[in-house]
Write a structure and sequence with these properties.
The complex is a heterodimer of chains A (about 350) and B (about 350). In chain A, helix 4 runs parallel beside helix 9. Chain A has a single domain, classed as ABC transporter involved in vitamin B12 uptake, BtuC (Orthogonal Bundle), CATH 1.10.3470. In chain A, a hairpin with a 7-residue loop joins strand 2 and strand 3. In chain A, about 70% of the residues lie in helices and about 5% in strands. Chain B is mainly α and about 350 residues long. Chain B has a single domain, classed as ABC transporter involved in vitamin B12 uptake, BtuC. In chain B, about 70% of the residues lie in helices and about 5% in strands. Chain B is globular and about 60 Å long. Classes of the chains: A mainly alpha (about 350), B mainly alpha (about 350). At the A-B interface, helix 7, helix 13 and helix 15 of A face helix 6, helix 12, helix 14 and helix 15 of B.
Amino acid sequence: MERVKLRKTGGEKRKLGIDLKYIPALSAIALFLAAYAIGGILYGERGFLSMRTFATLFTDNAYLGVSAVGMTIVIISGGIDLSVGSVAALSTMMLAYGTEVLRWNSVLMLIVVLLTGMALGAFMGMLIDVFEVPPFISTLIGMFFARGLCFIISIQSITINDPLLRALGKWRIRLPAASRAAAYVNLSVFIFALVLAAGVVIMRCTKFGRGVYAFGGNRASAVLMGLPTRRIQIGIYTFNGFCSALAGVLFAFYTFSGYGRHLYGMELDVISSVVIGGTLLTGGVGYPIGSLFGIMIYSVILKFISFNGSLSSWWTKIAVGVLLLFFIALQRVTVVLVKRSKRELKRKN
Amino acid sequence: MRGNPGTAGVFDKIVSSKLFSSLAALFVILLFNVFLNPGFLSITIVNGHLFGQLIDILNRAVPVMILSIGMTLVIATGGTDLSCGALLALAGATAISLIRGGSAVLNSDTAMPFVLVIAITLAVTTLCGLWNGFLVAKLGIQPIVATLIFMTAGRGIAQLITGARNLTTGYAPFSVIGQGWFLLFPVPIFIAAGVCLVAWYFTRRTAFGLFVEAVGINASAARYSGINSSLIIMAVYAISGFCAGVAGLIYSSGIMCADANNAGLNYELDAILATVLGGTSMMGGRFYLAGSVIGSLIIMALTKSIYAFDVAPESALVVKALVVVIVVLIQSPFFKKRKFRKAGGPELELASDREGGR
């Protein structure tokens, strides 16, 4: 697979020596650095560049990052998952209800929550693969189902008082920072790092990961090659269900509450971050690391707004919309350029 | 009649069966409601206005119904419009801020001629829809993604217009759109009927509907046979934007307030559901406007019957999910193959061949 890829992309190198396929991901990184630098110039004296601010880029949005890793894999496979926000909200609700009302053991409850997420994901994957329901519709069903289930469990917001969960949520270590304000990294960041590493390893080094790329790149040839498409597709959505549930758990650690109205519209933030991070929505191309930068760009936008003070939070939506447009246009240009260079290569041969 | 003279008998088999199943679903839900509440079907006349649960369902289903008309055409071309809920909010924000014209206090005057307010509002959402169509048709971006941009940014722009407040107005003529009565019935029902009639006329009495189906079945084949595919695609997204504008006027007039955050929240999903429940396939091709209207009534009736129990309104989502699972599974190729294999008859074989031929 790797060798095939090399041969295919060998002719697409431009004068700079950068593979065209990496342009969206690289521009995401460049954009992040630029935004960060501009923030430093504008709000540097108020601590925009401090270690503390940098750490909060991750601590505040680690849950989004966890979900983005799963979403990246789904989108690489050519699918989409609209259910992530609802499944995450269901996780916060189940965790809160299980530990506070049913008084179940919190470790047991964590396992139950993650398994529920996986089961929902597997169910959606099955609808997509076995019954050929488009991903958009089947995950829409999952979205409604999970969101509705939250309110069947409880209408109220439930505060989490379980000592173990509170300890896990509050646990953090201080980073050696030179500035006056202390910087902290919490458990969510470590879990995000783990999930991201797992995502990278799965996509780069396993048969499953290569199957996902093949499946997203060209479904018909993946089937003809004899790839176990059913296992791959159900696997993808199961993994994403796990990521959504884990994201919900991290959000519960962050807010110490379970509520059915949590995380409305999270799927939009996650999908936008993944797209901004350079994953092609047509499938077949993308990198979990790119999504890390997508999430960081999103976090920097939030930081800009909070540092500015006079901008309302709805500017986030407009900024994300504009960025989405920019990156989608960039993706189109890249795809066209790749096609053109392929044609040139063919002509030369 | 359906652009397929060979099969258009007295009852086109597929149309009748598809409409029949959605009608049956609506009937079952209404029956269930009658069982819950024996007074469900009663309609009374108070002050020359019809009152009753059925009228209420019809009236409340109007915004989703109008959205689903636009959505049906978009889905028929093989696309999806995720932005219509946000555009609904944008329409409300535009209309009410134009009526207020920057005045800080609530008054019962309008700063601009009312007709102009409506025209500008509809033009704004139609242009947004046209932009979606441009991204899909000219730049070749997938519909979900192209419309995702306005789904995210649309509410942001709406909040920009209202200054992130819930703008209210006391201008009486505006309230007629969403709250008025005319000849026994609420005005929104007439507006919805008007939109449906116009849509029916242009899709079934002109070649436009045929072109839309052709694009949805195979865009390049349609182009080769001389249909301007990209123009058709841009047109359907613009129509969807226009429908969102009309729905937005009705919605905001109903509450006399522009709520950029919550107006039309998740309505795009309801509109897609209504379309799918009505028998239009997400793959594009054939579409059933009447089916989508029935679909939106099913959704409202379902929501209404869930309100009858004393649970959170959002619990309705679970029931919605289950209903859609059933409908989608019945429509899925997996079961279709089984059903036809069992039933066997030559006519059914023909139908399945045609379906598969897409």
